[in-house]
Amino acid sequence: MKMFLRRYKFFLFTLLTVGILTIINKKIGFKALSIAGYSFKEMALVIPPVFILLGLLDIWVPRETMMKYMGENSGLKGIILAILLGSAAAGPLYGAFPIAAVFMKKGVKFTNILIFIGAWSTTKIPMFLFELSALGSKFAVTRLLIDIPGIIIIAYLLSTFVSKEEIKNIYQKAETLS
């Protein structure tokens, strides 16, 4: 019981807070519950396909292949592949992190993982197509041409500022998640 309480203390605290809020002001309490329910439903629709794809990636793509195309010695092709994979991805940003963990298990370079996450959050193809139609090609292409170098620069800066020991610890934690 103690372990349960310790593990879910933030969730239980939030549940208690929303319960008290609902008692004090039913309208706001029910609105908070409605928003939480919607978010839960959205996550329940996104997470299963992401984990199915992760399982397939883990089984079908050998570690050697991932290291060849996105590992330490991948160079420009690793950067381009990270951008393409992140841009083609569907779903909210929290879907990128389990994929990043599998990439770590497969030996993908830390910088390429950061580029993948940056591309997932910024350069999605559907977003680019929407911007083309709604805001015009000049805006959409300009934003993309600014974002891609920005993502690469930020990824290299982060990998420079994060110590090798910390990166090693991150990779070890990813290994224990399986």
TrEMBL record:
**Per its UniProt record, what Pfam families does this chain match?**
ArsP_1
Q: Does the keyword Nuclease apply?
A: no
Instruction: List where the protein spans the membrane.
Output: 42-61, 81-104, 110-132, 144-162
Q: Where does the UniProt annotation locate this protein?
A: Cell membrane
Q: How does it sit in the membrane?
A: Multi-pass membrane protein
**Family classification:** Belongs to the UPF0718 family.
Q: What is this protein called?
A: Uncharacterized membrane protein YraQ (UPF0718 family)
- What does the record give as the organism's lineage? Bacteria, Bacillati, Bacillota, Clostridia, Thermoanaerobacterales
